[in-house]
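Before the break, one more example. Copy the sequence into your notebook; we will annotate it together after we see the structure.
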Amino acid sequence: MTATPAFLSLLSYEVNSASDALRRSAALRFRREHDVSLMEWRTLALIEHLQPVTLRALTDYSSTDKAQISRIVSALVERGLVERRAHSTDARSAELVLTAAGRKKVKGLARTAQLRDRSFRGELNAQEADQLVAMLRKLKAKAIAMIEEEDQAQAQA
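Here is what the structure looks like once it is written out:
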């Protein structure tokens, strides 16, 4: 019998594994109940939050590849959930807004997301949930600092 793979004992593996399971379960439920992918849901929510918003601003805010966001937005426009309108000050650009169907879709998705969140929080007491959020924020901050260190090291190489 071989030794246990080294990555199984890593904290980052546990966090990533949990994140993957959370993401996959959300993707399955949102697809089944709302016929929307996770990226479509996040894009709809961001458009709702930022509207009217340009594709460029949406890309910058989401830190997602412009081509990917463009494809998602095009699909949402085709499905009647998002509308492209002429930009008020820039003729070369368009503004994105939710349609009535898009607003209805976002409300349904938000309800589903809140139900899922309550279910997860139900596995923890209030103190545990607060501690988990605080710990995840610490780990995220450390990971961001490590990204910056790697970027600097790469720039110097």
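The longest strand covers residues 82-86. Residues 65 and 121 are 32 Å apart (CA to CA). Try to locate both features in your own notes.
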